[in-house]
Amino acid sequence: MAKRWLPKWVSEYEDRHGKKRYRFRRKGFGQYLFKSAPGTEEFRTEYRACCEGLAAPKIEAGAARTIPGTFDDLISRYYRSPDFLDPSDRTREVYRGVIERWRRKYGSAKVRDLEARHIEDMMAEMLPHRTAANMLRKRLRALMQFAIRQGMAQTNPVIATKPYKVDSAGFHTWSEDEIARYEARHPVGTMARLALDLMLWTGQRGGDARVIGPQHIRQKRLVVRQEKTGAIVSLPILPPLAASIMAAPGGSLVFLLSGHGKPYTRKGFGNKVRQWCDEAGLPQCSAHGLRKAAARRFAEAGCTNQQIKSWTGHTTDSEVSRYTAAADQEALSDAAAEMLMANLRKRLANDSHKSLKKGK
């Protein structure tokens, strides 16, 4: 009997032109036709989305009786569109969570009946959780833009609304003192220290750091494809990180292993870092704050936004600015003062030289 080479629930067929195609068919879930060929990274991304019920959502009882023109109808279409499928797995998971919580209450409502005042009332119901209310507004705005393309709405009422002002700088950026306190509590050779070094000396997200392993090392560099954006970064392995990797137990596909000798899940890793921070007396610190600390260090060293982006994988200067807001203001202002005075001295020297030439 021939060995099956396709993943579970994936089958091959020929379309009407005789071209080989692949589809995902699983009992109780919708069917999905793959856009990419098996063996490619794109195919693996699509397959994961199918297994998680994102690209091939679970068939709910009575779903076939979805009333045309309702949000149930619109959302079902949206889940099959590039608007939803193109972002990363993690991003889709977050989007789907926001939409489904809202859908349970308003799914049967007509799309054409949604007005700005309704959206403002929905957001007000979520107070005092302003960030969650703003997230809902973003998702509804994207959903209504899709509705316009589908001919289910003429305008986007979300545009007429305003998000709540959120007085927060986001995740706390680790200071040098906090980094030193963590290092004192968790010496080189421990998993706790390796976790810090992998994030601090690469500037990567915790979700990416937890899966970094020997296979990512190529010619003394770390080559990482970021889960959230798909961006690929190639980074030199700096001495502190190299020492931490060499001191930790090896022999696995990933550097960071749980107490059971297995890789961490995304949630499990976040919880573990939380525990390690608490042990060091740093309740205000988090995994993501280390990524911001790495960007801060680059800014304090005088690196350009473009140089910082080459490490963090950010694509816009505004994103980098949010991460480097905690850069040492005194050090930066001193550096700016030195550059200013050097430029003035150069200008005075040039003016003096011109005056001498005229005097002759």
From TrEMBL:
<feature type="domain" description="Core-binding (CB)">
    <location>
        <begin position="69"/>
        <end position="148"/>
    </location>
</feature>
<dbReference type="InterPro" id="IPR013762">
    <property type="entry name" value="Integrase-like_cat_sf"/>
</dbReference>
<protein>
    <submittedName>
        <fullName>Tyrosine-type recombinase/integrase</fullName>
    </submittedName>
</protein>
<feature type="domain" description="Tyr recombinase">
    <location>
        <begin position="169"/>
        <end position="337"/>
    </location>
</feature>
<dbReference type="GO" id="GO:0015074">
    <property type="term" value="P:DNA integration"/>
</dbReference>
<dbReference type="GO" id="GO:0006310">
    <property type="term" value="P:DNA recombination"/>
</dbReference>
<dbReference type="InterPro" id="IPR002104">
    <property type="entry name" value="Integrase_catalytic"/>
</dbReference>
<dbReference type="Pfam" id="PF00589">
    <property type="entry name" value="Phage_integrase"/>
</dbReference>
<keyword id="KW-0233">DNA recombination</keyword>
<dbReference type="InterPro" id="IPR010998">
    <property type="entry name" value="Integrase_recombinase_N"/>
</dbReference>
<comment type="similarity">
    <text>Belongs to the 'phage' integrase family.</text>
</comment>
<dbReference type="InterPro" id="IPR044068">
    <property type="entry name" value="CB"/>
</dbReference>
<dbReference type="GO" id="GO:0003677">
    <property type="term" value="F:DNA binding"/>
</dbReference>
<keyword id="KW-0238">DNA-binding</keyword>
<dbReference type="InterPro" id="IPR050808">
    <property type="entry name" value="Phage_Integrase"/>
</dbReference>
<dbReference type="InterPro" id="IPR011010">
    <property type="entry name" value="DNA_brk_join_enz"/>
</dbReference>
<keyword id="KW-0229">DNA integration</keyword>
